Amino acid sequence: MIGEAGYEQSQDCKVTVKLKKRGKTKIVLNSKMAKMFGDQIKQKAQEELDLQGVKYADVTIDDFSALDFVIQARIRTAVRRARRAEEDV
Amino acid sequence: MKLQKNKIGREVPEHVQQMGDVKPYIRSGKRREKFISESDKVYTGKVVGSLKEAIVKSGLQDGMTISFHHHLRAGDMVLPKVMEAIDELGIKDLTICASSLTSSHECLLEYIKKGVVVGLQTSGMRGELGKAISRGLLEKAVVFRTHGGRARAIQKGDVTIDVAFIAASCCDDMGNMNGQQGPSAFGSMGYAMVDARYAKKVVAVTDNLVDFPAYPVSIPQTLVDIVAVTDQIGDPELMGQGATRKTNNPIELTIAEYASKVLIASGLIKNGFSYQAGTGGVSLAVVRFLREYMLEHHIIGSFGSGGITSTMVELLNEGLFTGLLDVQTFDKGAVESIRYNGNHIEMDAGTYADPLTKGCVTNNLDIMILSATEVDVNFNVNVLTASNGNIMGALGGHPDTAAGAKLAVVVCPLVRKRIPIVVDEVTTICTPGPSVDVVVTERGIAVNPDNPLLKAELIKAGLPVCTIEELRDKAYAITGKPEPPKFGDFVVGVVEYRDGTVIDMIKNVID
């Protein structure tokens, strides 16, 4: 199931989380900051997924130079929305 | 004494002490001779109807150096039009010595690829051009010069300009010109005044040919070879873009408020002080705080200098400064002012900042407000390259004014978007740390340890003083420490300090 959070605005990011039953967690980052902060952002994203107990997911982060806490918050909300969508089915 | 008879029939000595060998008068006397000799050609009929004609008449050849000035900034049409004409004439291998390059000069990308342009000397560059140069588009390293350094290099002969193309919003048929009148008025011609004096050939490019004599005369007819008429030299609407932005951003206002308190605490704001504001939201907000303080305490400053904005003009009009010295006029309001206000004075780039003259204005400055792309823990400032290594800025008068001013204040946010501004080491050193007195951010003020008296005054004034290392740590705590950009071994640019020594180099960025 899919959950989205955030906006395509400066210093924000739009996160799409697709929860899966199995496989691998894949994080795709689209960001102008990728070269400078790509590894850091992905690491923070993974930490947040771990914190939320997400084991298998496809995560896309369309980043517009957000700080880490913003990215983490958007991931948290996207995960919650994906889970809610799952329950609604 | 040996005598000789000249052409008009009088005997004159062959030799006199103060002259050496005497040249006897040789004209027949039948026709009035206007000009000194046949070998030094003096131009009459300077006006030509097209840029192509002007280029041909100037004798421009492959491999020569041509110059431009950037007073029309983002609205400049002269460089693109001249380059188009040069390309059509098939002239190539040229070096461009520009006072700076702006977003209106992206066309150079194409001319570099075609081999029309093989070298650049400029204060800076932006956009796609900067990105491409950063990736090694030009084989020759770009020479980056400060505004004062460029004046010095031209005057000293480090660079010889074969043909200078000078935009004139008002020009007569003999080449007397100014930038203050006409539909494309842009104000001061400061940078071009140096080119006009030293270039071998000077071409005035105008869209406003007026009856003789054009007045005021910023560049006189005595220096001008050719007057080329074109339909438009620039778009004045684009000229002032962004320069006079009034900020409501709370971070910028906080920085400005701290900066103005630093100025007050320094004790330099008193009758007769001099000031240069720069542009950008923070600098202009500082001026407004300064204005209130000056009004309240009945302080009248001596001069404001540099790039002049309408914010500084307001202070002149209120009698808070005796005069403004203007090398580059930033917006319409300031253009109006230089046209009508005798105390708003045009100055050339040499007078402004050339360190080898017998006196330049920057060296008489009390206070300079400077921006920064990056500042490092040694107070070195970068204004030329982005944190990702791309060339995207300009030296401008930054190193000149920082060196000259009694108090050089850098104002910058601690973080821009996700990018830390106070860092371990700047990407490119443009202004050396010893020139900088204090760095003001929204989260603290760091004073150069070389200036302990200032630090004591700021602490006494209750300002949030900390070390530069603390600022760096605060920045990294918010953003994380970025991966440094990957550079290759190819030198794409060298950064000249104002005295002609090389302070840093720029290598190619690897994607």
Instruction: Give the strand tally of chain B.
Output: 30
Chain-averaged pLDDT of chain B: 94
> Hey, roughly how much beta strand do the residues of chain A contain?
25-35%
Largest sheet of chain B: 10 strands, mixed
Number of strands of chain A: 4
Poorly predicted residue ranges of chain B: none
Instruction: Indicate the percent of residues in helices of chain A.
Output: 40-55%
Strand percentage of chain B:
15-25%
Number of helices of chain A: 2
Structural class, from helix and strand content of chain A? alpha+beta
If you compute it from the alpha carbons, what radius of gyration of chain B comes out, rounded to the nearest whole angstrom?
25 Å
Describe the structure.
The complex is a heterodimer of chains A (89) and B (511). With 89 residues, chain A is an alpha+beta fold. Chain A has 2 helices and 4 strands. Chain A has a 4-stranded mixed beta sheet. In chain A, helix 1 crosses helix 2. The model of chain A has no long low-confidence stretch (mean pLDDT 94). Chain B is an alpha/beta fold and 511 residues long. In chain B, the strands form 7 sheets. In chain B, strands 5-14-13-10-6-7-8-9-29-30 form a 10-stranded mixed beta sheet, sandwiched between helices. A 9-stranded mixed beta sheet of chain B has the order 18-17-16-15-19-22-26-27-28, with helices on both faces. Chain B is built from 15 helices and 30 strands. The relative contact order of chain B is 0.11. The model of chain B has no long low-confidence stretch (mean pLDDT 94). At the A-B interface, helix 1 of A face loops of B.
Structure summarized in a few sentences:
Chain A is an alpha+beta fold and 89 residues long.
Which features does this protein show?
heterodimer; A: 89 residues; alpha+beta; four-stranded mixed β-sheet; 2 helices; 4 strands; 27% strand; B: 511 residues; alpha/beta; ten-stranded mixed β-sheet; nine-stranded mixed β-sheet; 28% helix
